[in-house]
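Hi support team,

I've been running sequence recovery on a batch of backbones for a student project. Most finish fine, but this one hangs at about 90% for roughly twenty minutes before it completes. I'm not sure whether the input is malformed or the queue is just slow. I've pasted the structure tokens below so you can try to reproduce it. Let me know if you need the job ID as well.

Thanks,
M.K.
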């Protein structure tokens, strides 16, 4: 079930007397959180998935690396508050510092600016046991209180699903578009549609779909093994009218760079051609 939101197309005249006028999605700017006064972010891209564990954080960081390699100023807002993984991928274990003006993101070895709840906790292994509205508030603060400085692209790694946090990000941040990450399993069709529909209901453009775990390449004969079954991604993308941005195999070289916390030098050849 979705919240009662209006998808736009409203005019001042039609709003007058409308029962939803007070919380109408067409008046989106009312819900927008202000950016920090020292931030100048040109594009905000959300990375979402209908379900957990499909490699959303990996895709977020890969897109950030791709844009970094192209010479852009890039940041990652880790909105996956209860399962933050971005700082560790980049080998960052320090705490973020703040001043009166705001909080400074940590800077990875490749220059990527990163903010995550793990950079604010005294013990990075401590679990975050907060209720939805508190978590959503923290994500908004990552936009309003963090000094992002000049960024060409800010990638937002969302928690899986269509709960409080994605809703808050869509309502409070000026998201220019989302990338949906998925895997080739049977349930996927329905799950991708849920993520797609949520973004569309919030008037956020869907830039395309990335399929992860598409295949494994046999190290001996080079044959592509589809261990999660045949992909339905072209069908789904066609039905929704969005492009397939990439298909990633399970790649031990990528797993290694994550395990060794060296993502600042990662190259993900499977997503190189994406235009954002
Ligand atoms: N194509 C791949 N090849 C090798 N390892 C991968 C690949 N995709 C993801 N992984 C690894 O699988 C693990 C889970 O990936 P990731 O953390 O990106 O998933 P997620 O969808 O963000 O998870 P969550 O839903 O819990 O936030 C990570 O250790 C990641 O490095």
């Amino acid at each position: 079930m979705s919240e009662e939101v209006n998808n736009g197309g409203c005019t001042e005249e039609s709003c007058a007397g409308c029962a939803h006028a007070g919380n109408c999605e067409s008046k989106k700017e009312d819900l927008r959180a202000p950016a920090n006064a020292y931030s100048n972010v040109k594009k905000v891209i959300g990375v979402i998935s209908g379900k957990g564990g499909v490699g959303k954080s990996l895709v977020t960081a890969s897109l950030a690396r791709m844009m970094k390699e192209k010479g852009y100023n890039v940041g990652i807002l880790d909105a996956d508050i209860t399962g933050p993984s971005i700082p560790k991928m980049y080998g960052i274990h320090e705490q973020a510092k703040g001043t009166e003006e705001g909080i400074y993101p940590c800077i990875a070895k490749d220059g990527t600016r990163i903010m995550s709840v793990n950079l604010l906790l005294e013990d990075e292994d401590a679990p975050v046991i907060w209720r939805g509205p508190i978590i959503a508030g923290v994500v908004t603060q990552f936009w309003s209180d963090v000094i992002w400085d000049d960024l060409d692209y800010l990638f937002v790694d969302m928690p899986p699903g269509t709960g409080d946090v994605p809703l808050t990000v869509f309502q409070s941040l000026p998201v220019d578009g989302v990338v949906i990450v998925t895997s080739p399993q049977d349930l996927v069709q329905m799950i991708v549609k849920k993520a797609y529909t949520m973004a569309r209901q919030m008037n956020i453009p869907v830039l395309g779909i990335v399929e992860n775990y598409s295949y494994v390449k046999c190290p001996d004969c080079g044959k592509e093994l589809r261990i999660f079954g045949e992909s339905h991604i072209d069908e789904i993308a066609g039905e929704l009218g969005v492009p397939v941005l990439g298909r990633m195999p399970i790649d031990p070289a990528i797993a290694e760079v994550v395990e060794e916390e060296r993502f600042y030098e990662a190259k993900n050849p499977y997503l190189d051609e994406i235009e954002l």
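--
Follow-up from support: It reproduced on our side and the slowdown came from queue contention, not your input. Residues 2-7 have pLDDT under 50 and may be disordered. No action needed from you.
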